[in-house]
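One such shown below:

_____
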Amino acid sequence: MPLNEKVIGKKYKSEPVKISQHESIYYALAYNEDNDAYFDNRRPGGIIAPPMYAVFYGAGPTAQIIFDAEIGMNMMFVVHYSQYFEWIKPVKPNDEVTSEGTITHITVKEKGSILGWETVTKNQHDEVVVKAKWEFFDRSAGSGKPDAKDEGEGAPSTFVFEDTMKVKNGQTYIYAEPSGDHNPIHVDDGFAKKVGLPGIILQGLCTMAFAHKMAVDHLTPDRDPLKVKELYVRFARPVLPGQTLTFKGYTQERLADRTKYGIITLNNDGKDVLRNAWCSVAV
């Protein structure tokens, strides 16, 4: 069944969310983080919430969209398609943030339809802290007409870093709690198989959080998370518990105030799990 294009432009607003130190630390641990910026209150200025914690505190409009019957999504067949964040100001424990979202587009493809929306999150001082673009893919709303072939990114000749991350057995359950992503495809093996998946799959935003950690660890001085200004990923294929992911970074473009890096992410079989991923880092 096609998605309802009349919802394009529809707006949503979340209730205020107070940032909990306990939950923001829990979120960092849920994706294997070890950066003291999120844990050590002895640091000047104290700790910050992990930038990727925006998946929780900025997701109020997303939750409203998911349950908006007017859109016509079949949530049994919905997966995360792509995600973009731009971090503008740090968010700290005890901050109070509010998010507004707007549906921006519906793109019909052969095997499903993409629903896209943008969110803007502000703190208690009415300052914008995060901007985001979200896309979900409804596998039940395709056109049946072949898509133009997506070649993806070309392989660069040199890399500025290469590192790995092991996906723990049980990682989907750990990540579900602080992120709020309890979709059954991440925590119910029988349900995941029922909708055509090989079993429980890792939350795409957890894979994205791994990529963010790689960018901070390898592309910033002193592992400073505030230097990573943007991150975009497209989710190419499921990640399974127990897999080891390989991340490779390479320079794409040098600008006056930041450098743009591409990030290749491969599974055990050497197949990409993130496609066309990139980040920008302040210089």
Observations:
- The mean pLDDT is 94.
- Residues 204-219 form the longest helix (16 residues).
- The helical segments are 21-30, 54-57, 60-66, 171-179, 184-187, 189-194, 204-219.
